[in-house]
């Protein structure tokens, strides 16, 4: 019997039980759609975070209190000292003059104008922040060294905060209330999108000394150093560690921008594969459903199998027919699942970053076909081993 004839017989058998075939495919459809969707979310988040780190600027070094590299002394690993402005000032004095050291402080805040109020995030730094971090000013300016020294109540608005508080207005020289304190708006920036710390457009920027007064603290948890020459990054990284080790010892982590990207890519890549693995469980369940239905089909068609074997059908012919039926169910379900997963990722794009990759589509499709083959072989083998005389007697 030719392959075309075997396919025709298999298709006719599936067409005779349309509802059962559709319900059998449902498990594969859900599994494949879940794989496509979850991998798209994981890949989208990975691309966005990587882009956010690259978008911060170039030739950056990040310092954090706590031994994140060695696994001890990080968050939850015991008492970890925080940075103070003395630490960033010490770095600025002892590093090469071309280096720019920015202490970074962040915290939630409420900003209001009249009856308009926005929950936002304070992102605070010193006078070098605008030189280190990339941001396009649509109006106004950044805060100055004198304003950092005086803890002046000045603020720069992210695009979303500006649109919420000053729709169709120029916010420069206007006043806003930040946590009940009156601030003067000195500038506003263009839309920047997401970042490591959330939505940059829903942030406000102010001198770090001002933010520390609002929160009643002199501590912060991140120092960012910009190195003018990319060739000096490794030597500057060693200098930063040597300068700060006198206070922090081994409870200190200093990463280059490249190292940070590598760590984040590895973590997010692992997360993406975990999401795909979780979704793959649905495919496994769908495969078991296919095997179950095919076993039922073998039982129902025992007499038909006996007749075909009695008139000369070979074991291979019977086996190939049932394998083709199982693969057809899984591949058709895989194709529908890919379409649904793709559509779902497009629908979610306005809420979360999603990227459908060719390897995810190929993996899902190949896995769905493999599921059909794997779970179709046993029912097909069982059908092919039926004794024709016993099969003909079956009622």
The helix count comes to 13
Into which percentage range does the β-strand content fall?
15-25%
What's the multimeric state? single chain
> Any idea how many domains?
2
In percent, how helical is the residue content? Answer: 55-70%
Could you state the order of secondary-structure elements as H and E? HHEEHEEHEHEHEEEEEHEEHEHHHHH
Could you tell me the number of beta strands? 14
Average pLDDT figure = 79
Radius of gyration (CA) equals: 31 Å
Which structural category fits the helices and strands?
alpha+beta
Measure the end-to-end span: 27 Å
Principal-axis shape equals: elongated
What kind of sheet is the major sheet? Answer: 6 strands, mixed, barrel
Would you identify the regions where 5 or more consecutive residues have pLDDT less than 50?
71-79
Strands ordered across the widest β-sheet: 3-4-11-6-8-7
Labels describing this entry:
395 residues, alpha+beta, 2 domains, six-stranded mixed barrel, two-stranded antiparallel ribbon, 19% strand, elongated
Describe, in plain words, how this protein is organized in 3D.
The chain is α+β, with helices and mostly antiparallel strands and 395 residues long. The chain has 2 domains: 3-50 and 264-393, no CATH class; 81-250, no CATH class. It has 13 helices and 14 strands. The protein has helices spanning 3-15, 18-55, 85-94, 129-132, 145-149, 159-165, 208-215, 233-248, 257-300, 302-310, 315-348, 358-384, 388-393, and strands spanning 60-65, 83-84, 100-113, 116-125, 137-140, 154-157, 175-178, 181-189, 194-195, 198-199, 203-207, 219-220, 222-226, 252-256. A 6-stranded mixed β-barrel has the order 3-4-11-6-8-7. The protein has a two-stranded antiparallel ribbon with strand order 2-12. β3 and β4 form a beta hairpin. The longest helix has 44 residues, at 257-300. The protein is elongated. The two termini are 27 Å apart.
